[in-house]
Amino acid sequence: MTTPRKPTQRTATPRVLAATRGLASPGAGPASLARATPSSHDELVALKRSLEGISASLNGVDPRHLSTQERSTWAQELDRVDLAIARVRVSLLEGIVAEFEAALPELQIATAQLEANLASLQNAVDVINVVAGVLGVIEKVIGLAG
Amino acid sequence: MTLVRTPTPAVREGGVRLLPSAGLSPLLLPLALCITALAGCAGVAVQRAKDVSSAGIAYAQATAAVIDVAVDASIDFSSNNLLLIAPAPPLTEQVRKERETRLKERDALLVRSTLLYAQLKRSVNVTQAYFTALQQLADGSTAEATETAVKSLADRLNGVNQALDGGEGTASLISTKKRDAIGGLANLVVKQIHGAALGKALERDAATVGRALALQNRVLQAASDDIRANLINEAERGYRSRVLGPFAAGTMERAAWMADRKTFLKIQALGQTQQALDSAQAAAAQMETVWARILSGEYAAKELAVMLKDTEDLLAAASALKDVTAAESPAKAAAPKN
């Protein structure tokens, strides 16, 4: 029933290869994952979608219709794909986090500037009100002196 | 100039208040007319800032909601796969150890991705804070307050003048008509300053916000992919066990089978809505283009909301899946165990 996404054929960069190390060597840990750069982001997205497509295809197989040997191979493949997806996800999110973190200071400065703009508009009214208040006091002082 | 539009009712009202008959010197009339025209531009900038900030807040909130669902979806996706390939007991000690190691490895990755999603949610909140500040500035016009303050200042000047001249009968330094006209002028000047501040802010922050929105779009896309992958697998699994299986065996219960069939087919369809977006780069570039066009006035801020349509469909599918799995759990618990 499922229409899995078509695996994308691309030449993988070293970062993408590092992220998918689990497919080749199941022992590689998360600490060894490379961080995604903007240039590798697209490749990681395509790779993850491709792996998710494979996972959907494997999920579409009814294991009851497989022989013992076939079932073992199928389970191994599904397991490896699941691990690879988790690795690629981490690498992909690390890349976005790094880029977002780099962009945040500028955004925070922009937010502070907006708040300062609002405060300065309110300050102008406050200054006029203070001047009017001082004039009111002067008026009363003159009245008392008179 | 694209910014010049039909004056808003407030601007027309301001213009009427500045007519010479209201007490303003004819020499000030050209100035008043200039300010009225500029206030028209300012009105457009204020409205644009209001629209953009509302759309930006909605976009950030939708992204945060998708992140929450994606965290659950990514864990469920892995759990379902592991359950699907689980060997039947009894298991040897070696197999047990292998399975334990395998689960720990996956769990470490899922903990890491959950933390990263949480970090991204905080970044999205910073974007939302920008739009909230923009909205507060757009809503924070001090034109009316300034008009009142200026009128009050004129009254105080008259009061001081009368006190210095020492009598109640002394003519006012500033007549009531002039006072009102000056107050109206101050109102328009502040509107112009307010609009100019907003226009300047939108222009100043265009690149920064455009970049943040593009990154937010990447977050949305990554999170949507996780939700979609889980939906597709769950729909496949549910369809096989609750629709196809009972149908082939002829054991379906009419109402439940019809409901399950409808649910799983819809989840599957909704889970595939964004598959046309093949390139993350294209989507991010699209977001930056949309943002630039909104700022130039070519697009309405609604375009940001339109970009969320697919996301809404995806969240609806995730919600439907949650409902169906919630209904499935008590049924499983109640079913006799073999």
Short structural summary:
The complex is a heterodimer of chains A (146) and B (338). With 146 residues, chain A is an all-alpha fold.
Keyword list:
heterodimer, A: 146 residues, 0% strand, disordered N terminus, B: 338 residues, mainly alpha, elongated
Number of strands of chain A: 0
How many H/I helical runs of chain B?
9
Query: C-alpha Rg of chain A, in Å?
Result: 31 Å
Q: What are the low-pLDDT stretches of chain A, counting only 5+ consecutive residues below 50?
A: 1-10, 24-34
For the secondary structure, the number of strands of chain B is 0
Strand content of chain A: under 5%
| Average pLDDT for all residues of chain A | 77
What fraction strand of chain B? under 5%
Based on CA atoms alone, the radius of gyration of chain B comes out at: 32 Å
> From the structure provided, what is the oligomeric state, counting identical versus distinct chains?
heterodimer
The greatest inter-chain interface is formed by:
A-B, 69 and 83 residues
Mean pLDDT across all residues of chain B, rounded?
77
- The helix count of chain A comes to 4
Uncertain residue ranges of chain B: 1-22, 276-281, 333-338
Structural class of chain B: mainly alpha
What does this structure look like?
The complex is a heterodimer of chains A (146) and B (338). Chain A is an all-alpha fold and 146 residues long. Chain A contains 4 helices and no strands. Chain A is rod-shaped. Helix content of chain B is 81%, strand content 0%. In chain B, helix 1 runs antiparallel to helix 2, helix 5 packs antiparallel against helix 7 and helix 5 crosses helix 9. Chain B has one domain. Chains A and B meet through helix 3 and helix 4 of A and helix 2, helix 3, helix 4 and helix 5 of B.
Topology record:
The complex is a heterodimer of chains A (146) and B (338).
Chain A: H1 14-19, H2 21-24, H3 38-59, H4 68-145
Helix pairs in contact in A: 3-4
Chain B: H1 9-17, H2 29-84, H3 93-139, H4 143-165, H5 176-249, H6 254-271, H7 280-296, H8 302-306, H9 309-334
Helix pairs in contact in B: 1-2, 2-3, 2-5, 3-5, 4-5, 5-6, 5-7, 5-9, 6-9
